[in-house]
Amino acid sequence: MNTVWSERLKRNSLGWGLLLPSLLILGLFTYYPIFKTTWLSLFRMDLSTPVPIFNGLGNYAALLEDPVFMKVFINNIWFGLGTVPTSMALAFVMALFADKAIRGKGFIRVAYFYPNMIPMIAVANIWLFLYTPKFGLLAHVASWFSEQEVSLLGQPGTVMGALIVMIIWKEAGYFMLFYLAALQQIPKDLYESASVDGVGMWKVLWRITIPLTMPTSLFVAIVAITNAFKLVDHLWIMTKGGPDNASSLLLYYIYETAFSYNDQGMGAAMTVVLVILLLIVSSLQFFGWDRKIHYE
Asked: Where are the membrane-spanning stretches (predicted)?
């Protein structure tokens, strides 16, 4: 028995040794913070309680009664619904054009991807100027339609739409890369056979291109949804979550609660909710959705 275990140890020691640095990093910077945050979420830790008091699930119950949290959570849902489908559809169309273009193919791909290369802080400042009343181009366009001066970032009815447009512009080029790679993996024989049979362009798109890129669409959708719950840099520059929390998102509200209001218990509870939500979204691929959507 000892001989068997010694052989296994010799055979696997190199592999475990190579994995050890990654496991240590994951443990220190991923699993330990998750465990610590979950533990802190069970305590009341705010300015009125300098010594933490065990609160059980009280913080989670308080979240359900917090109107700001519910509003921010709904804002994030609308933000995801506005950015994810549109950015994916736009990325797919851009990838189709970049894949079929004959002249200037490299320039077109770089131009599409360029917005993703700009840091979010810089993007936020650029679009903040575009939305600035009296000076910004988009503010001028909006004033032409409304026949009066419009503050796109200062009105609850327009601020979320303005942010959604900016994020779509920022992310579509990034998602295009995945679709472009997927399009280049489709066998050209399928298109040649369809052309010989006289199949129309739209039918080819519906019967060949879209089904064969569905695994990529699932991956892009998961990335886009998680990004919708992680993007907060632009809020710090453009709106600070206003007006009246109309543009505030979940991660930004977590930051405000934990560091501006010094309520670490509630901030930890909201973080746990966010982590669980992202885990559910990320696990869709591992529950077999990627196998179910393959075109066979």
From this structure: 12-34, 77-98, 110-130, 159-183, 204-229, 268-289
Q: What is the pTM of this model?
A: 0.87
Is residue 262 located within the same domain as residue 209?
Answer: yes
Domain around 224: 59-292
CA 31 to mean position of chain CA atoms = 21
**Contact in structure between 179 and 250 (CB atoms under 8 Å):** no
Is 35 in the same domain as 115? no
CA-CA-CA-CA torsion sign (107, 112, 116, 120): positive
Residues 24 and 96 in one domain: no
pLDDT of residue 83: 95
User: Cα separations (Å) of 46 from 52, 94, 239, 246?
Assistant: 8, 49, 26, 25
pLDDT tens digits, 100-130? 766 667 788 888 888 888 999 999 999 999 9
